[in-house]
Structures are given as structure tokens and as C-alpha cells.
């Protein structure tokens, strides 16, 4: 959840690292720091707050260096302050370390070091790891079989329990960076006589398209302009160099006020990109190359278990309805964070679909490993090529949504639902549970979705006017039925994430089983009331809210003449087949949340306490 950037080569390291930290600030923004090495030795500068505060701290400092590393933090151990910010010195200041992840046994290691006379300036597990590595290194140096810093890192990490991506600088060697990973992503960019390290490719793409994805239990040693990769048991490996397709403009705001708004407006394209090369409605063909060898297994499965967290979990709930409706396969949707701790019943023949925007979600990765150990076949649905989940699964499909920088997912949700819908359609076609006519109809409707989302986005000004009216609210209720129930959950999540207004989503029929007690003239209620098989029922639910003076914002189907006379405000969406309506009905809820948050003065791209890529439990 923290952001790591490091560089060694011929360029000025400090401005490169700072620029990289700004691109990674969506991963953590409690504090930031850099370590630089030049004629003045190994120097660390760090500051609580955003990267801008660190830049101010660096004003007037001697920052010339061709080796450096930086970190932007999402606090786990110790409150966000200057002292707990990374990088951290080792005890004798021979090393500097930055770290993403959690060292679970840091307390035991710390106690052992305290008995040796070590003292600690921070509350972090990271400082403990740095001191532990230095202690092993110094102990080796005093022995007859003196080892290298690389050896010390290997030995220390063999004792560590937890997850980590680390980078270490060595005061004695201005050409050396050592990095390692287990459970947290780390990318190495390969340039001409230079190397870049980062948590993801966004800080690297400006300088090189050649990257190496470090695997779990691997250590990268960069020294004197060469790269060596070894495993924890000291086996040398030959890393594969990938070509990244990410373009620089994809990670810029492109004239929008916020990344979140840009990504909401990118959805017509990202949905189309999620279908590109896969759907041909004219000749009723659907091809998912990543599932080609497993499609029979999916169609014949007796049970599907979908795992995800947050927005990805909501996409899984939508998929549950679609798989059961079209493919007639029983589906369970699990929080990945709970799945791994409750001894779930998984059998050979079960299909587990893991959903993650980043492909690095720690809880989802752990759930995958558990399901694999029980013989399940694992499919992945993620956005980042080469990510941990993409490599850990048996098969799957990328969403091709492009980079999502805003912490609150928007285009990730619609891209995930698009890909999951394609998977359900492919399974239904192979299984014979869908008629040819419905199959053709849904493919054609899918191809029309980007244009329909574009039409919803044209109502942005009207949605902004509605948002202004409700900036006073302290609570919201979102209601939906059927496929729109997960959309209600997603709409409520977006509002609470970025505006800090308490919001809850419910199945509309459940309102009378408790939440109706909250309804009064000060309670805004957002109801997704599109023309579908539940329409008459949800109209009744709206009347129950209005009878108790609730204020209703209704998402309605274009041309609905009945609801405008009942509710306070309506936002129209084009008519969409019931199976596909979440792809369109969620968009006005994203805009509503965005506008309310902006009007309340919130930082919508970096909401408090949240980070984009949740790589710790």
C-alpha cells in the first residue's frame, strides 16, 4: 500500500525519485521521504504529509546524487509522523531501507536486538528489519567467513514472517541497490547503464519500457551497473524482461480536475477495450483467449466461488446473478479477507474466480493460495499485466481498463463486470443454457453499452445540481433490487469513501426489516428503479419511503413517466437489458458521489486512510 521508487545510474536521482513518488502517491500519502548518497554520505530526508511537504523540506538541501530511493507511506506500524516516515537508517547508519508490507514477527526480532544494545527511533517494523540486516552483516564481518550485504539480506529474510517489498542502500557502495519481495509488488526498469525500481510501472514508463517483475522470494542485487537476481536459497535466476505497453499520457489527468473524474469519463472507452477482440456481435462470436483451454471446465463446474474485496466484491455480486441466470451454475461470493480464515469447503472441480484491480491485493492472493491447495481451478480477473494474481492463477482475463489512479475505483468496476459477463456468456453458450437469440441479443447490447454510458455522462451537469442540494447530508441510504442491489452497495461505498458521509446499501425489500426506522425528512434515499422485472416492487418501496417523508433520488429508465411524479429527483439512463443494467446504472452514482465530495472540499483522489493497492492484511 506504500509507494517505492529507487534509481541508480547517470541521472540526477532526487528529481526522478520525487516525480516517481508523486505518481505513486495514490498508494500512500501519510508521509514521504528520500535517501540519497553523494560526497556527503548517506542522507535521509523525510516529512509527514504529502510529497509536496517533502519537496519543501528538500529546498536548499544538497541533493546531488546519481543513486537514491524514495517512499510514500500508508501507515501500519506507528502513527504518520516525521520519525515513522521511510526511509529508515540502520543502527550504525550503514544502511537505509524502505519497505512496503508488514513484518509480522518484528516484535520478537526487536526484542532480540534490544538485548544486544540496539535502540530504535521509530515505531515501525521497517526500522527493525533494517537493523536486523545490519546486525547480521556486522556479525559476518567479524567472523572468519565474512559475508556480503547480499548474504545478510538473504539470511535476514529467511527469518522474516510476513510480506515485504524492500530496497536497501549501502553507504559503503554508491553503485549498489538491493531489493527483495514477498507478497508486495516490485518492478525493475532496465535502461542504458541505469536501473529503476518501483512498486508499479507508472514511475518507470517515462524512462524505459523494459521491465522485470520480481517474483516472491527473489532478491535483486544491482552493483556496478549490472543486475543479478537470486532466490532466498541463493539460486541464481534469469529474469524475463517484459515490454510494457503503458503510455505516459495514460497516467496524467488530461485536463480533468481529478483522476477520479477522468476515469469516470473514460468508461465508454474502458468498457469497449474490455470487449475489444473478444466480442463480434455481427456473427455472434465470443472469444476469451485466456480461458480457451478451461472453458469446458467452467461450463461443467458444479460450483463457482468468487472472491474479492471492496469494489471487486461488488462486481462479484453482479456476476453471481449473471452466472446463475445465464449459465445455471451455483455461485458463492466471498470476501477474500474472510474466506482464508474460515476453513472454507473447496473441492476439486470447483472454480474460484479472483477479482482485483491491481492484481496485488494481499487478502485475495492469500485466498488464491488456499483454494489452490484444496484442488480448485483458479481464474483471475485483474487489470495489471504481469501482476501477482495474474501469475498465480491457472487462467483468466485482463480487463484492459488502463491505469486507474484514483483510489476510489470507478472504471475498474465496469470493466470487471464486463469481463465477468463475457465469462458467464461463454459458459452459458458452451453449456447450452442460453438460446441463440438471447446470446446474439446480449452480444449486440454489450456493444451498445459504451454509447449508452456516454449518454449518461452527458447528464453530468444535472447530477451536479442534485449533488449540491445534498451536500448537507450526514447519512444516505441506497436501495436496489436484483442486479441493482450490488450497484446500490457500490454507490454507497463510493460516497462514504470520498465524501466521508455515512452511507449504506440495502436490497430494497429489506428496508422494512430495519433501515426504515432511519427514514425522515433529512434522510436522502437513492433508489435504482430501472424498468425491469422488479420495477413494480421497487415503486412500492419508494412509496414506503415517501410516506415517511424521505427524500428520494431515483435512477430511472429513459422515458419513465410514472416515477417523476412520485420522487424528488430523477436521473435517467438509457434502456438496457436487465442483465447488463449495472454497467450503466452505476455511472450516475459515481458522479453523484464525486460531486458531493468535491463540494464538501474533499481530496477525492486520495481520501483519508485509504490506499489504492491493498498489499497488506
Automatic annotation (TrEMBL):
Its main location: cytoplasm. It is found in: Cytoplasm. One of its GO terms (molecular function) is glutamine-fructose-6-phosphate transaminase (isomerizing) activity. Residues 2-225 form the Glutamine amidotransferase type-2 domain. The active site is at residues 2, 612. Residues 294-433, 459-607 form the SIS domain. Its EC number is 2.6.1.16. Homodimer. This is Glutamine--fructose-6-phosphate aminotransferase [isomerizing]. It comes from Spirosoma profusum.
Amino acid at each position: 500500500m506504500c509507494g517505492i521508487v529507487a534509481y541508480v545510474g547517470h541521472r540526477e536521482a532526487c528529481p526522478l525519485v520525487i516525480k516517481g513518488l508523486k505518481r505513486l502517491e495514490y498508494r500512500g500519502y501519510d508521509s514521504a521521504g528520500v535517501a540519497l548518497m553523494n560526497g556527503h554520505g548517506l542522507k535521509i530526508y523525510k516529512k509527514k504529509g504529502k510529497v509536496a511537504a517533502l519537496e519543501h523540506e528538500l529546498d536548499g538541501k544538497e541533493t546531488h546524487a546519481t543513486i537514491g530511493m524514495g517512499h510514500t507511506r500508508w501507515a501500519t506500524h506507528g502513527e504518520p509522523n516525521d520519525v515513522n516516515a521511510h526511509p529508515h537508517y540502520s543502527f550504525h547508519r550503514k544502511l537505509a531501507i524502505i519497505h512496503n508490507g508488514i513484518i509480522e514477527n518484528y516484535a520478537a526480532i526487536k526484542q532480540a536486538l534490544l538485548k544486544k544494545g540496539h535502540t530504535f527511533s521509530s515505531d515501525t517494523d521497517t526500522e527493525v528489519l533494517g537493523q536486523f540486516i545490519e546486525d547480521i552483516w556486522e556479525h559476518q564481518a567479524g567472523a572468519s567467513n565474512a559475508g556480503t550485504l547480499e548474504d545478510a539480506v538473504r539470511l535476514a529474510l529467511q527469518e522474516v514472517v510476513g510480506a515485504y517489498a524492500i530496497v536497501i542502500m549501502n553507504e559503503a557502495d554508491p553503485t549498489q541497490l538491493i531489493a527483495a519481495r514477498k507478497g508486495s509488488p516490485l518492478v525493475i526498469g532496465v535502461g542504458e547503464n541505469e536501473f529503476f525500481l518501483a512498486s508499479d510501472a507508472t514511475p518507470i514508463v517515462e524512462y524505459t519500457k523494459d521491465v522485470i517483475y520480481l517474483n516472491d522470494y527473489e532478491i535483486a542485487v544491482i552493483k556496478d551497473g549490472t543486475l543479478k537476481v537470486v532466490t532466498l536459497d541463493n539460486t541464481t535466476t534469469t529474469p524475463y524482461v517484459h515490454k510494457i505497453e503503458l503510455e505516459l499520457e495514460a497516467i496524467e489527468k488530461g485536463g480533468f480536475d481529478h483522476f477520479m473524474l477522468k476515469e469516470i469519463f473514460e468508461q465508454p472507452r474502458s468498457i469497449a477495450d474490455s470487449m475489444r477482440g473478444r466480442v463480434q456481435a455481427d456473427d455472434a462470436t465470443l472469444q476469451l483467449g485466456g480461458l480457451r483451454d478451461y472453458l469446458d471446465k467452467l461450463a461443467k463446474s458444479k460450483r463457482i466461488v468468487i472472491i474479492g474485496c471492496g469494489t471487486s466484491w461488488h462486481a462479484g455480486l453482479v456476476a453471481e446473478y449473471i452466472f446463475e441466470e445465464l449459465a445455471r451454475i451455483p455461485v458463492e461470493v466471498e470476501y477474500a479477507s474472510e474466506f482464508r480464515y474460515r476453513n472454507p469447503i473447496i473441492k476439486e472441480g470447483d472454480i474460484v474466480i479472483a477479482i482485483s484491480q491491481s492484481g496485488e491485493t494481499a487478502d485475495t492472493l492469500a485466498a488464491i493460495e488456499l483454494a489452490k491447495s484444496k484442488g480448485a481451478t483458479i481464474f483471475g480477473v485483474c487489470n495489471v499485466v504481469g501482476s501477482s494474481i495474474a501469475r498465480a492463477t491457472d487462467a483468466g482475463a485482463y480487463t484492459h481498463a488502463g491505469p486507474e489512479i484514483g483510489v476510489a475505483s470507478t472504471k475498474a468496476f465496469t470493466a470487471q463486470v464486463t469481463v465477468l459477463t463475457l465469462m458467464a456468456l461463454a459458459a452459458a453458450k458452451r453449456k447450452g443454457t442460453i438460446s441463440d437469440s438471447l446470446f446474439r441479443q446480449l452480444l449486440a447490447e454489450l456493444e451498445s453499452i459504451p454509447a449508452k454510458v456516454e449518454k449518461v455522462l452527458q447528464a453530468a451537469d444535472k447530477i451536479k445540481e442534485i449533488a449540491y442540494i445534498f451536500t448537507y447530508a450526514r447519512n444516505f441510504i441506497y436501495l436496489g433490487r436484483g442486479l441493482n442491489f450490488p450497484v446500490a452497495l457500490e454507490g454507497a461505498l463510493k460516497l462514504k469513501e470520498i465524501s466521508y458521509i455515512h452511507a449504506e446499501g440495502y436490497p430494497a425489500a429489506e428496508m422494512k426489516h430495519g433501515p426504515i426506522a432511519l427514514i425522515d425528512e433529512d434522510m436522502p434515499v437513492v433508489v435504482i428503479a430501472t424498468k425491469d422485472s422488479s420495477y413494480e416492487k421497487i415503486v412500492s418501496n419508494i412509496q414506503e419511503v415517501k410516506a415517511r417523508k424521505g427524500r428520494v433520488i431515483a435512477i430511472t429508465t429513459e422515458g419513465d413517466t410514472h416515477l417523476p411524479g412520485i420522487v424528488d429527483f430523477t436521473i435517467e439512463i438509457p434502456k438496457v437489458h436487465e442483465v447488463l443494467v449495472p454497467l450503466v446504472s452505476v455511472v450516475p452514482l459515481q458522479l453523484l458521489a464525486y460531486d458531493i465530495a468535491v463540494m464538501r472540499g474533499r481530496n477525492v483522489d486520495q481520501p483519508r486512510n485509504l490506499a489504492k493497492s491493498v498489499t497488506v492484511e
